[in-house]
Structures are given as C-alpha cells and as structure tokens.
Amino acid sequence: MEFIIRYGSVMKESRPSPPKTFLAFFQWFCHPRMLDYIEGDLLEVYQSNYKKLGKRKADWKFILDVLLLFRPGIIRPRTQPQHFILFGMYKNYFKISWRNLLKNKQYSLLTIAGLSLSLVICILIFGFIKLHLSYDDFHTDKDKIYRVVTELRSTTNSHSGGVPTPLPVLIKERESFAQKVIRTYSAPNVRITVSDSNGAHHYKEAEGVVFAEPDFFDVFNFPLKAGSAKSALSNPNTVLLTEELAQKYFGEENPIGKSILLDGEYELAVDGVLQDIPANTQFKSGIYVSFSSFKTYMPWLSDDGFWGGISSGMQCYLVLQPHVSPREVEDILSDYTEKYPIGSSDTRAYYSLQPLSDIHFNSMYGGTMERSSLWILTAIGLLLLVTACVNFVNLATARALHRSKEVGVRKVMGGRSSQLFWQFIFETAQISLLAILVALIGAYLVIPMANARFNLNIGLGVFSDRYFIYFLGTLFLLITILAGSYPAIVMGRFKPMAALRGKFSLQNLGGFNTRRALIVGQFVIAQVMIISAVVIMGQMDYVLDAPLGFDKDAIVMVSMGDDSRQNKTALKNELVRIKGVEQVSLCNDAPASENGWMTNIQFGDQTEELDFLTNMKMVDEDYLSTFGLTLVSGRNLTHSDSVREMLVNEALLHRLGVPSPEEALGREITANGGNMKGRIVGVVRDFHGNSFHEQISPTLLTSDLGYYESYAIKLNMEDSKSTLAEIEEVWKRDYPNQPFEFEYLDDRITRFYQNEATTLSAVQLFTGIAILIGAMGLYGLVSFMVVQKTKEVGIRKVMGSSSLEIIWIFGREFTRLILLAFIVAAPVGWFLMKNWLENFEFKIQQGLGLYILTLGFTCVIAAVTIGYQTIRAASVNPANSLRSE
C-alpha cells in the first residue's frame, strides 16, 4: 500500500513501472529497508533501461536485479544488515532448527517416528485407493461401456451380473441403441495341459478362461503383442494368451500356432499373444477363447434358445451410441421381461445397465470392493495423521519450557513475534520433510509385505505417479500447518522478561486444558479402534468355531474331473481300502460351499413351481456319515445312480409350511424344471450351507452319479501326510493325465471370511499404530507435567509424602483423561460395530466385558507409558528439586 501511495501520481503520469504483481509480492514479503532500496535506486535504473532497452528487457533486468539481492555478498551497503536479507534469514532458520533436532534427539526421534508411522499408512492407503478407483479407466470408451445385469423378482429378489444366453443376440439383431454388443462367459478353475517333447504338463488356472466374441478387443483395450487383432477370436477353437502365460507354457518358443488342452478335452490353437493384463481391471484371466468354441465346451448354456436360467458367468456388454441414455435402454429392455420369461415359474427377470466404473464396487452384482470401504480407509488415514499431529503439538509445547530463554534472548535482541512464528513453522516443515523421507523409505520396504499380507496389489510405480507427488505435497502442507501453527503461536507470544526468568503460567504455555483435550482425542481414536478389533476378533472366532451342523475337521475335498460313472465308483472303493481313510463320499460339493445349485421346486400335487429357490446337492449314501449330518426323522438315502429319493432340511419344511418332519415323509418333490423327481425319505437337521452372512437356505439332497464332482475323504489325522501320499499314488496310477488337487474343508470355510480376516489384520495394524502414537503423546504430556511440578514434588517429599503418593499425582490426572476418552469412545465404537455386525445373520452380542477389556487395556498402556517419567520424578532428591530453576 505504501508503494502505491508513494508512486500513485507517477503511475498516473504514465511513467514506466515494473510488473505490478512482482512489486506487490516484494512489498508484502520484504523488510521495509530492503523495500526502500527496491523502490528507490532500482526503480530509477528500471526507468533508464526502459528507454534504452524497451519494456520486456527492462522488466526482466529489474527482476534479475532484485533476485541478486538474495545472494550473499552481493548486497549494497545501504541494505547491509543481514537479517534484512531473505536468504540469510531462512539460512539461519535452517541452522537453528537443525541444531535443535540434533541437540534434542529424544524429541526428534519421537516426533519424526510418530509422523513417519502415520505417513507410511497414508501412503499405503493412497496406493490402495488409487488402484481401486482406477479400475478399468484405461479403456477408450470407458464412459459409454455398460454391462447388462439382471434382477430376479419373486417373493424374494436376487441379483446377477449375468443374463440369459439369447438376450445379447436379440439386442444385436433388433436394437440400434448400441455401437457394440458382446457376450462373454467366464469359466473359473480350469485345467490347462501343454505337451512337449518331455511329456504333458498340467496347470491349474484359478482365474480360468474367458470365452469372448471377436468384438471383445474393440470394446476393451487389451492390446496384442503378437497376432492379428482383426482375426483374433474369429475362428473356432482358438485362444489368446498373455505374455506371462505364454512364457509359462512355452518358455522362449514362439507360441503362435501351438496348442493347449482345456480341461483335458478341448484342444485350442494359440492365435495371438496379449500384453499382460493390468492389475486394475475386473478381467483377471489371461486366457481368452473364441466364443464359437463355447458351443462345444458347454452346449446347453450356449444354446441361443436357452431361456431356462441365468448363469452369472454369461455376461453382456454394450457400447452405447452417442446421446443414448441408460434410462432409454432400460425402458426398451423392459419389454423383454414379459416376452421372454425365465423358466416356467413366476420369477421375472428385469434388466438394467451398470456403468463400467461401478462393476468393481457393486457387491450386489459380484463387485469385490465397496466404495464405503475406501471412505473408511480414508478416514482412518486422516485420523492417524491427525493423531500424529496432535502428538507433535503435545511434544512441542511440552518442550517450550526448555526453549523459553532462547525465545527471550531473541525478543530482547529485537526479534518480532512474526519472525519467531515463521522460524517455528520452518522447523516444523523441516521435521515434516524428514518424516516424509523416512516414510517413503518405509513404504518402499513395506509395500511388498503389505501386498502379500493384505492382498493389496499396490505397485511400486505409485512412487512415480504425478498424483502421488501432489498427495505428498498436500500432506507436507497439512502437517506443517496443523502441527506447526499452534506451538509457533504459543512460543511467539512469550513475554521477554518472563521467558528469560523461566516463569510462566499454564496459560502462557498454551493452556494445559488444550493439551488435555488433545490427549483425550488421541485416546478416543485408539479406544474406538481397540473396540473394533476386539469385536471383529470375537466375530471371527465365533464364525470359525461355532457349530455348523456338520463336521468340517479332517475332511479333504478332491476334485474328480470328468470321470465316467464306473471310474468314480471304482476309485471310491480303492480309497476306502487305504489305511487312514475313515469315510469316502461322492458328491457335487461339501455341505458348505461358495457354489450352489439353486432350483425351483414343486411340492406334492402342486403343478406350479414354488416362488423361492432351493439349494440342491447331489450326494451318495455315505454323505451323512462322512460329514456327520444328523437325521431328525426318517432314514438315509439308499444307493442309487439316479434320482429316486430325497432328503430335505428343516428350513425347507418351514418354507413349505409342513408343521412336522413326519408329515413330510413320503411326499414327492419335483426339481430342475421337472427333470428330477423323488420322494422324501428323511429330514436332516439344519446346517450352514453358506457363510454366517446368510440365513440357512432351504436344501434338498438326492443321488445322481452323473452329477458328482468331488470325493469327500474323512481322514484319521494321526498320520495324515502318509495317508494323503498314498491317496495321491492311487490317483496318479488311475489318472496319470490329471493333477491331484485337494483342499481341507476347514480351509475352504475359512476362505468364506477372507475379507473379514483382511479387515481384522488391517484394524489390528491401525490400532497398534494409534496406540503407539497416543503413547508418544502421553509421554510428551507427562514430560511437561514433570518439569512443571518439579518444585511441588520436592515440597511434598519434604512434607512427608511417599513415592506412591507422588506417582498418584500424575496417575490421577491421566486416569481422568482415559476415563473421559472412554466415555466418548464407547458409544462411538458400539455404533460402528453394530453396523458392521449387521452384515451377519449369525453374530455375537457386544457385551459389557468387551468394554471393560478395552478400558483395562488402555489403562495398562498408559501406566507403562508414564511409569518411567513419574517414577523418576518421585525418586529425585527433594534438595535437588527445590534448587532447580
């Protein structure tokens, strides 16, 4: 403002002037005496250069002349006091802050460690969130790509990411709202066989294969490394492999023209090689087979006239025409609901469009990540960062007493509060920068371990991402402002004489109540996380140990592949004779399985199918004894190679409205569209066929040798290794071309709760870090109190107080803070965990003991944290305490 007033008349006379923005910046930033020189001599030089050189060159020369003022040794005599020079001032700030860090190693270690811990977690969370938000965002037409999904409505509604097989064909033939319409079918857990001069090599691919139409790679941008994009997937019995799988199957040889065997039966010629599929896509498979091959792989589902059901693997993708809205398409697709009913029941299929960006996040249609989880992780990262900043504030203000004389001397020598403020801000920025550097090293080392432990899939390329640089810059500014402003303001307000004498009231040091509030906030966060961890652990113990209604221990599930009826029975008889094998059952799956055969049924004399789905399991007569299922009424199934008799569970009787198990015996059930009929011969006690997230579903069990897919083998666990080795030997002798694959049933059930297990591990990690940072904050506050109460402790000891009474002076204060934090944390934790437990149909109750445990654990942590400082304070010789200044 001074410059504008002084030179306002000159400007009005159109005298040349330097760039206004540049002058305004220096007017705000520079010391007055430096500004006098810029506005005086340098302005005259500028006006002279303006006449000789022109405006542009004069402007640049003026800027250069001003910048030269900040180089040491090139300052004119009239601007010589070095504290007027910006560079020199910041250089002094750096020296002072660096000396303070080296001098106070304990303080430096605590602050940098606390910030680094929280920053490592923030970096991991950033990488995780960025990965999931970027899913399938690399496709050219990503904003126009939609998946057609299905809602099946009856008395109960269900959702599927799949569609009836003929629907995409009808859309392509009859409608004009889409530029491209493609079908895909995903077949997981396939077996690939590759033969060479050394024999046949077998591979199990959990991600399976994708049968795709030729336009697939016009819709999705997965570029080819070798082969023709135009002819890819156009011919029957052809396959595309990713570079990784081509290397795996054929080594360094050219894979084009070679063949692989799918599930030991379908020969496919390699027609091209794809670049490796990125991690951030829903298409995880590296094997793409021409859709025309699907007609031989699964003829009944590939039939373009099949409206009898919906498989979640059969999916339809559209690329909409410009200016066509999803709502318009859904209105058109509503006509297909009545024209083409699904099956013969009252169930109706309603079709809607799902944006490509929503597929990964919508669990209703098979998405693997909820957006709410990303928000929760963001909140946790911010809370840990705030906790670390609070810890920094506590330590900085507790340390203010030790810097009071330094502040007093600087103020007596003419230092202003603003200069002190910026000095302490600069110190905070230096600590923040060091913490970020440490965190970067820590994150680089931790990411591989975190990927393996939490299945995060974060690439090290995150460090070279420009958004990551912006993220780090934002964190740097946030930490510097949040953590540095309060201590800087507090120390900048010290009165010179009081600072030199070392005499302060609590209010002079920033208010003891403020630090109390910060400690309470830290422990609220820590206790909420402890409550969450204990509840999740309790629920996990419950779902893994609670009775399931069947035996899960010591049972091995072996996939049998495509065996003939005779081979299945023959191998079962061989397995039973092996020492250590107690029971063997042929079945399509275990009682609890992620996969289910859901079908409509007819009961008794009813001609219409019931409006709910029943889970059907194909089992033999040894199924009940192998899995320990309990009969409530009736008898077991007798040996049969086809459907004749049925067992039902109590949940099915309840849905049928049958009042007692005895009344159900002898009644007939028709299933699978009328293809299977049998009489009820027994009622089985309810068992959990799915995870504890779901209610027990209506279930029927019947025999049909043609549908058996697994051997359920109950072992004697005393020598299970040798028993499994003998089973494998028998297997390889009978099926040399099929790999022996087995899985313990209890491991399979544990996989039901993989997401919860990952959540628990993450919460435990976050809880540990929050507790550690909170403990650092307590340490800082108790350090402050010990210094503040040195003379009080000495006087109390002289007056006869014991060491325990002295310790209680400090312990009483922190006990109050922890209790106050618990009063806030308990209802918050209860509310959060109540919502989390709503995802389970079978769950634990949040008892009082849970909260007592949380409070007790927090008190123990606090006692350990403050114990050293308080015991040392209580042990000091009172003469030394009273002599201290």
UniProtKB/TrEMBL annotation:
**Source domain of life:** Bacteria
Positions of transmembrane segments = 107-129, 374-396, 420-447, 467-491, 517-538, 765-787, 814-833, 848-868
Q: Does the record bear Lipid biosynthesis in its keywords?
A: no
Q: What cellular-component terms does GO give this entry?
A: plasma membrane
Q: Which GO terms describe its molecular function?
A: transmembrane transporter activity
Q: Where in the cell is it found?
A: Cell membrane
> Is Nuclease among this UniProt entry's keywords?
no
Bilayer topology: Multi-pass membrane protein
The ABC3 transporter permease C-terminal domain, residue ranges: 380-493, 766-878
Primary site of residence: membrane
Signal peptide positions are none
Q: Which Pfam families match?
A: FtsX, MacB_PCD
The entry's keywords: Cell membrane, Membrane, Transmembrane, Transmembrane helix
- Domain MacB-like periplasmic core spans what residues? 108-333, 531-703
InterPro entries given for it? ABC3_permease_C, MacB_PCD, Macrolide_Exporter_MacB, Permease_put_prefix
NCBIfam families tied to this protein: perm_prefix_2 (NF038404)
Q: What is this protein called?
A: ABC-type antimicrobial peptide transport system permease subunit
